[in-house]
């Protein structure tokens, strides 16, 4: 499985780079630095049309093999250790820092918001919250029956949820589920059908690149959709973009770009840390060095958010502090 999907590290790398860019540029924009607001909005819409669906899709690819390897109970425990545990730890750590330093940041986070994490996830951590409960849902659905027919039915159901989400109860956590869960189950189905290698050719990459550019142009410039606009059209846009990223990642994996693969392998750590790193650098650049150039802020902010996150992870490995990212109480998944 790992050899069959060695391109996934590259897809994660591309995805996390987009996540970091999106949050860094948003921070710069909200800080009031001069920048082309229309360009910012257009790029923001493009990124948000697919980058988080991409991560749910990639997570779904490994669900069946994980459930088969560990079984129902141990799979849930493993996801608690590796998904929900870091959600709790870093929601609290980042939240306390943001609440304490709120006068220096764009947001005004309260301690009440920080400690409401069990029912109202905040900041980037919503992804881990929704992903954990998606794993649990999938485990119950497929514990006995993993037939293709059932998987297709589940994908169809959650596709309808996605397409008609505007007609469903507008509850924050549920809104996050409406917009992302379907891509996790599509990932499960794709592995079941064993059809992903059809995207491994250069021809497929070229075709998908053209479709990606054309669809994003139509979505952003002709129809003037925004990041919150979701329905049938945005579903198709997301699937085209995910397919393109897969095809591109398959070609990149052939080049053996170690740094990019390393970023992909460390994508969860970067996801947990990049807001603190990126915001800290932005504040230092603006308040200490008086850097008001949005372009310089974004470039330095993205490099620093990724680079400092990786350095911090290596520091935790060296000094045996990995309990910050993974629960130390369970060893059953070894």
UniProtKB/TrEMBL annotation:
Domain Acyltransferase stretches: 6-313
Record-annotated membrane-spanning stretches: 7-25, 45-63, 84-105, 125-143, 150-165, 171-192, 204-222, 228-248, 268-289, 295-313
Keyword Membrane: yes
GO molecular function, one term: acyltransferase activity
Swiss-Prot/TrEMBL keywords: Acyltransferase, Membrane, Transferase, Transmembrane, Transmembrane helix
Keyword Translocase listed: no
Protein name from the UniProt record: Acyltransferase
């Amino acid at each position: 499985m790992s050899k069959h999907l060695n391109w996934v590290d590259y897809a994660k790398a591309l995805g996390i780079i987009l996540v970091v860019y999106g949050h860094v540029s948003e921070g710069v924009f909200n800080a009031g630095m001069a920048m082309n607001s229309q360009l910012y909005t257009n790029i923001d819409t493009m990124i948000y049309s697919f980058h988080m669906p991409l991560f749910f899709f990639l997570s779904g690819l490994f669900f069946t093999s994980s459930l088969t390897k560990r079984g129902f109970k141990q799979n849930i425990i493993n996801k608690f250790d590796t998904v929900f545990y870091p959600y709790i730890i870093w929601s609290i750590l980042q939240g306390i820092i943001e609440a304490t330093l709120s006068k220096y940041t764009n947001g005004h986070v309260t301690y009440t918001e920080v400690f409401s994490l069990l029912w109202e996830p905040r900041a980037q951590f919503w992804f881990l919250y929704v992903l954990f409960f998606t794993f649990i849902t999938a485990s119950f659905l497929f514990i006995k029956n993993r037939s293709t027919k059932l998987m297709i039915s589940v994908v169809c159901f959650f596709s309808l949820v996605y397409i008609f989400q505007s007609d469903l109860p507008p509850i924050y956590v549920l809104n996050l589920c409406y917009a992302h869960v379907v891509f996790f189950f599509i990932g499960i189905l794709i592995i079941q059908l064993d059809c992903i290698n059809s995207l491994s050719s250069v021809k497929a990459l070229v075709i998908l690149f053209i479709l990606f550019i054309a669809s994003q142009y139509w979505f952003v410039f002709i129809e003037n959709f925004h990041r919150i606009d979701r329905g049938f059209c945005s579903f198709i846009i997301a699937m085209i973009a995910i397919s393109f990223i897969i095809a591109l990642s398959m070609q990149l994996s052939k080049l053996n770009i170690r740094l990019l693969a390393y970023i992909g392998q460390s994508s969860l750590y970067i996801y947990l840390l990049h807001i603190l790193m990126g915001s800290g650098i932005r504040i230092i650049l603006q308040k200490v060095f008086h850097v008001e150039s949005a372009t310089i802020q974004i470039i330095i902010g993205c490099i620093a958010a990724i680079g400092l996150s990786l350095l911090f992870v290596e520091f935790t490995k060296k000094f045996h502090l990995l309990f910050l990212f993974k629960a130390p109480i369970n060893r059953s998944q070894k």
